[in-house]
Amino acid sequence: MMINTPVVRMGIDIGFGDVKVVSAKIGGNKKADIEKFKFPTAVARVKNKAIAGLDDAQVEYVFGNSKYLLGNDALGSINILPTRDIDFIMEFGPLLIFKAFEHAARHYHLPIKSVCTSAEVCLGLPLAYYKEKKNELAGRLASFEVSGCRVDISRLVIQAQGQGILLDFLFDDHCRPDRKWLGSDLLILDIGFNTIDILCVQKGRSSSEWSNMLEGAGICRICRDLDIELKRMGLELGEQTIKNVLVERRATKYGKPIDLSATIARLTSDYADFLHRQIQSKLSDVLKTTRKLIVAGGGAYYVADTFKRKYSGGFLLVPVDAEYSNAGGFYKYLKGVKNG
């Protein structure tokens, strides 16, 4: 690679709810332009249309022998694929990464083919699947093609989910370590849509004995309870749409907006209490000895208030951009390795 060739460096967190990205264009004498963005982890298969021309604004992606809609375009499709299974990430991870490349190419005014061949990428796998699936995912991402565009990632690193949060906490934006925390005992909760990854750090090293993953314990629990409430109102909605209702705190029925703020506040409080009980039950010994409890991921926003009441005195940290903490740490890893 030529020295002056622009390199896009990307930390990517492919969650079961959203894909979160922290990226920068590296090259020339300009300061790195850090861009944070996300889009729904949504993929829909394109089938023959009854009426042609109605969805011309939607972008179709050719992958393998099929066509797909991605992100927001996929949310309204009746052919949207379920996203709860790790096999979904294994199969469609390349597509979602390509969409992230497209966004970066637009933002940095680069040809998509340039990004597809110059990008450095660090991404994560859920803790429970890391050892089993790491090499398989690396093989799938080594080289692939989407809509005739060949992707050959120049540098690929796969980490365990939660490691990004640890790196984001330990290192500043210039990848300088905060030495007072090096070698410390830390407990990290990465609250995603489907899973919660628990990373226990003892004397600065990840502990496989105490680290764990709680499947089905993410904010999908709030969505399940919200789904029950919506059905009582006569609303049958898909999972990704329910997630949007949760974020926006309102729904629409026959054109009439329904304010769900009070309902969602109650469900969120119940969820935070549930999670607190789970953590106290499973990790009480770890909590007693750890220096800091770090709660991040997209679900952190839903438990922050309750956890701040439960854990006082600076013991708890919820990062400002909690949902980007994994991706931010992955980006710092690439930057730190690149800069030695």
Automatic annotation (TrEMBL):
<feature type="domain" description="Actin-like protein N-terminal">
    <location>
        <begin position="11"/>
        <end position="164"/>
    </location>
</feature>
<protein>
    <recommendedName>
        <fullName>Actin-like protein N-terminal domain-containing protein</fullName>
    </recommendedName>
</protein>
<dbReference type="InterPro" id="IPR049067">
    <property type="entry name" value="MreB-like_C"/>
</dbReference>
<dbReference type="Pfam" id="PF17989">
    <property type="entry name" value="ALP_N"/>
</dbReference>
<dbReference type="Pfam" id="PF21522">
    <property type="entry name" value="MreB-like_C"/>
</dbReference>
<feature type="domain" description="Actin homologue MreB-like C-terminal">
    <location>
        <begin position="188"/>
        <end position="308"/>
    </location>
</feature>
<dbReference type="InterPro" id="IPR040607">
    <property type="entry name" value="ALP_N"/>
</dbReference>
<dbReference type="InterPro" id="IPR043129">
    <property type="entry name" value="ATPase_NBD"/>
</dbReference>
